[in-house]
Amino acid sequence: MRTATIAALAYLALTSMAFTAPQGLFGKSITVTWNETRSQRDGQSGPFKPVSIPYSTTFYVSAQGHLFTRTTAKGGSGAGFGSVDRVGNSGGNAAGDARNVSFSGNTLIQNTAFQGAGRHIDVTFDSGFSSCNARVVTGMPKGAKTAVVRSISTGGNVEFESVSAGSASCSISSGNSF
């Protein structure tokens, strides 16, 4: 019940932000990559194991200012790559994840709440929108011992007892990278 309440509150907070992409990003793709380090196990049984999961999130802002997002990850237990595509700047999915993308000046901000954990990405652009720097923060609510999430790569549940994002890199390209 507590996780559902946290997810509902996060969703309401996330969807209240506005999305207006700066004109300098129209027709461009922004890709952020990082590794996420976890102590996790498949399902909710067995021992926790350390894993490092490569992640990539690509944002495409169309020539009309519409947002498209793709997040890709490789499974931490040797599974293949999987991805989640989103259209628009906010909303949830069947798994209960809530996401919002907004802009504050030259910074793109994405907040995602997913089943007892969350991720914050911010991307800061130079004045000409030709280069960027990114920061990714992942975590669980204070006091939570574990979080159960659905794996992007397998679709099954994984439980983790710790999670952190490593340093992120960022690139910008013209056109739709999808």
Instruction: Give the quaternary arrangement of the chains.
Output: single chain
Low-confidence stretches: 1-18
Number of helices: 1
Characterize the biggest β-sheet: 7 strands, antiparallel
The structural class is mainly beta
Q: If you consult CATH, what is the topology? A: Lipocalin
Number of domains: 1
Structural account:
The longest helix has 14 residues, at 2-15. The protein is mainly β and 178 residues long. The protein has a single domain, classed as Beta Barrel (Lipocalin). The protein is built from one helix and twelve strands. It has one helix at residues 2-15; strands at 28-42, 49-61, 67-74, 81-87, 90-92, 98-104, 107-114, 117-125, 132-139, 147-150, 157-165, 169-174. The protein is elongated and about 50 Å long. The protein is 8% helix and 54% strand. Strands 1, 2, 3, 4, 10, 11 and 12 form a seven-stranded antiparallel β-sheet that branches. It has a five-stranded antiparallel β-sheet with strand order 5-6-7-8-9, covered by helices on one side. Residues 1-18 have low confidence and may be disordered.
